[in-house]
């Protein structure tokens, strides 16, 4: 079941009417101190939902580097869908529980030495993450508290707004070509909508990882803040977004993203076949192995 929330739900007005929040300032409950917090977690995702503000903080919790394994991808989608269905939740702050790493992107071990069936299931889960997050009705803010390559960057790009910790050691970008693999069209489309065609082409061909000032300059992130201000800034920003009438914001979001989402939905099986054929090639397997070996050698 594709999580195509923006397209398949006619629920914006219903969600707005049923909301428990002050329509002019949805965060007003939080500022008045009436906090009702619910915590829940799967194995690899921690969630804290503040019912007063309608904001859930969703932390990736897959040490050491929050690589996106099949298990994490599955839990991620379940969590977003659960929040989407929860009338007390209207916005999500996506961040990392791991110090210094937002997410290392897809778990490379899921793409090495496995069966075609496994590659297909894995890729379907990657697609599902994108459809669920990019297509979410909720306000989504990425609080990027660490390095964020490849699918880590994709997750951040799916959000409505990106705040990154201003740390000279952190980088962000779609570096797939550096691994000898190719970002698929929907990764490319997501980046193009943010950076424009020329910059995306350059960025993808080079597999470029940007420092934080570079990422701000090109618009890959929207705001840089000191590391200890990432969460509080995200909380303030999401309040502004939630103050906009929800149905109008949601329809606008849908209008901006619909074409990209439909493109993957309409070519989903072909995209899986492409991935399975591509990733199963001996030359690609070799490239990934060399990349993993290099990662491990860096530590010695
Ligand atoms: C025609 C087209 C058709 C179809 C499509 C075709 C292709 C598909 C494209 C698929 C798109 C891919 C998207 C991706 O996300 S690929 C993943 C890219 N990720 C990276 O390049 C990041 C690699 N990691 C790092 O750079 C560093 O680890 C990082 C994140 C900067 C952290 O550094 P550090 O803190 O020093 O930690 P270590 O490097 O020591 O790592 C600790 C531990 O984790 C292992 N690891 C790191 N990253 C990954 C990963 N992505 N997957 C799996 N494992 C990872 C690392 O090896 C260490 O393991 P160890 O056992 O040595 O402790």
UniProtKB/TrEMBL annotation:
InterPro entries: ClpP/crotonase-like_dom_sf, Enoyl-CoA_hyd/isom_CS, Enoyl-CoA_hydra/iso. Gene3D superfamilies: 2-enoyl-CoA Hydratase, Chain A, domain 1, 6.10.250.170. It catalyses: (3Z)-decenoyl-CoA = (2E)-decenoyl-CoA; (3Z)-hexenoyl-CoA = (2E)-hexenoyl-CoA; a (3E)-enoyl-CoA = a 4-saturated (2E)-enoyl-CoA; (3Z)-octenoyl-CoA = (2E)-octenoyl-CoA. It is an enzyme of class 5 (isomerase). One of its GO terms (cellular component) is mitochondrial matrix. Pfam families: ECH_1. GO terms for biological process: fatty acid beta-oxidation. GO terms for molecular function: delta(3)-delta(2)-enoyl-CoA isomerase activity. The keyword Cytoplasm does not apply. Transmembrane segments: none annotated. Pathway: Lipid metabolism; fatty acid beta-oxidation. PROSITE patterns: ENOYL_COA_HYDRATASE (PS00166). Keywords: Acetylation, Fatty acid metabolism, Isomerase, Lipid metabolism, Mitochondrion, Transit peptide. It is found in: Mitochondrion matrix. Its EC number is 5.3.3.8. PANTHER family: ENOYL-COA DELTA ISOMERASE 1, MITOCHONDRIAL, ENOYL-COA HYDRATASE-RELATED. Homotrimer. Belongs to the enoyl-CoA hydratase/isomerase family. Key enzyme of fatty acid beta-oxidation. Able to isomerize both 3-cis (3Z) and 3-trans (3E) double bonds into the 2-trans (2E) form in a range of enoyl-CoA species, with a preference for (3Z)-enoyl-CoAs over (3E)-enoyl-CoAs. The catalytic efficiency of this enzyme is not affected by the fatty acyl chain length. This is Enoyl-CoA delta isomerase 1, mitochondrial. It comes from Leptobrachium leishanense. The lineage of its organism: Eukaryota, Metazoa, Chordata, Craniata, Vertebrata.
């Amino acid at each position: 079941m594709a999580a195509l929330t923006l397209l398949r739900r006619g629920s914006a007005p219903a969600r707005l009417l049923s909301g428990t929040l002050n329509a002019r300032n949805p965060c007003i409950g939080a500022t008045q101190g009436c906090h009702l917090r619910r915590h829940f977690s799967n194995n690899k995702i921690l969630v804290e939902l503040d019912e007063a503000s309608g904001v859930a903080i969703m932390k990736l919790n897959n040490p050491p580097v929050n690589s996106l394994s099949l298990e994490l991808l599955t839990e991620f989608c379940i969590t977003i869908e659960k929040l989407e269905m929860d009338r007390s939740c209207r916005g999500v702050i996506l961040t990392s529980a791991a110090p210094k790493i937002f997410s290392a992107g897809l778990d490379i071990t899921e793409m090495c030495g496995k069966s075609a069936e496994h590659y297909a299931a894995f890729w379907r889960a990657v697609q599902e993450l994108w459809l669920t997050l990019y297509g979410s009705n909720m306000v989504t803010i990425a609080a990027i508290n660490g390095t964020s390559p490849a699918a880590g960057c994709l997750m951040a790009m799916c959000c409505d707004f990106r705040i990154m910790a201003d740390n000279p050691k952190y980088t962000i970008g779609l570096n797939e070509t550096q691994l000898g693999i190719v970002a698929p069209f929907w990764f490319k489309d997501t980046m193009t909508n943010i950076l424009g065609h020329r910059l995306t082409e350059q960025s993808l061909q080079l597999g470029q990882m940007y420092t934080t000032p570079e990422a701000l300059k090109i618009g890959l992130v929207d705001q840089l803040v000191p590391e200890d201000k990432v969460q509080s800034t995200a909380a303030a920003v999401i309040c502004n977004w939630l103050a906009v009438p929800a149905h109008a914001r949601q329809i606008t979001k849908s209008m901006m993203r619909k074409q990209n989402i439909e493109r993957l939905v309409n070519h989903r099986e072909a995209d899986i076949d492409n991935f399975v054929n591509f990733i199963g090639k001996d030359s690609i397997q070799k490239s990934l192995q060399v990349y993993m070996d290099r990662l491990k050698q860096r530590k010695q």
